[in-house]
Amino acid sequence: MPMASVNGIKLYYEVTGSGYPLLFSHEFAGDYRSWEPQVRYFSRRYQVITYNARGYPPSEVPEDINAYSQEQAADDIVGLMRHLSIAQAHLVGLSMGGYAVLHFGLRYPTLARSLVVAGCGYGSVASERQRFQQDSGQVAQRIERDGMRAMAAVYANARTTACGVRVRRVATASAGPDPHCHWGRGRTVPGAGHLYEAHDSYGGPTGYPQERSHHQH
User: Fold this and answer.
1) CATH of 3-207, one of 3.40.50.300, 1.10.10.10, 3.40.50.1820, 3.30.750.24
2) Distance CA 186, CA 139 (A)
3) How far apart are CA 7 and CA 11, in angstroms?
4) Which of 12, 37, 113, 213 is deepest in the core (most CB within 10 A)?
């Protein structure tokens, strides 16, 4: 099982294909397996890297809540790249992973060839920050109390599309008998969603995909 020693913990990762490095960072309700369709396609031309963030087994689950933050998530990407001897890469992130990738670009712009940031922005509006923090605390408590299997149904409840089913399937599959499977996620939530005003530091190519309404064609 490939593990990278990164910032005092071990991160699980997979590398597929060869070519210019292309790194994917997963969403809160997913893990490295969420990128399977992208891996199959892009590994034809790129060296595709997927990994499980800290708190997502088989990556290690730190017990200290202070070990989870957006800054730490960005630093973990740097550590993984160094472990793989990658000087620069294209980076793609979704939701929680989108924030990690965006912070990576802001803090380490010379390491990013390009960024694709999708579903990112929660908690960054100053007027909504307090409510976001309250909601995050409630989600964290529910995950620690009920586990990720219960939360998987909540995540998919409002979405009957294939995407919603995919989220539920991945979240449920990753919620094994080990309590760390949901304990780490519970610790991840409070440290997410802090961007604030630092948004002009990265000058490279950045894509911000938006979800299209089912009414659009």
Assistant:
1) 3.40.50.1820
2) 7
3) 10
4) 12
Question: Given the structure tokens 């793989």, which residue do they identify?
Answer: 84
Q: Are 55 and 189 in contact (CB under 8 A)?
A: no
Q: Exposed, middle or buried, 151 (CB in 10 Å: 0-12/13-18/19+)?
A: buried
Q: Residue 74's CB: how many other CB atoms inside 10 A?
A: 21
What is the chain's pLDDT, residue by residue, as a tens digit (217 residues)?
Answer: 999 999 999 999 999 999 999 999 999 888 999 999 999 999 999 999 999 999 999 999 998 888 998 899 999 999 999 999 999 999 999 999 999 999 999 999 999 999 999 988 776 777 877 887 777 777 777 777 777 677 767 666 644 443 444 444 444 444 454 444 444 554 555 445 444 444 445 556 555 554 443 333 3
Sheet holding 46-51, edge to edge: 3-6, 9-16, 46-51, 20-25, 89-94, 112-118, 206-207
Phi/psi for 184 (5° steps) reads: -65, -40
Q: What is the DSSP letter of 167?
A: H
For residues 69 and 87, give the distance between their C-alpha atoms in angstroms, rounded to a whole number: 24
Three-class SS of residue 215?
coil
Domains of the chain, residue spans: 3-207
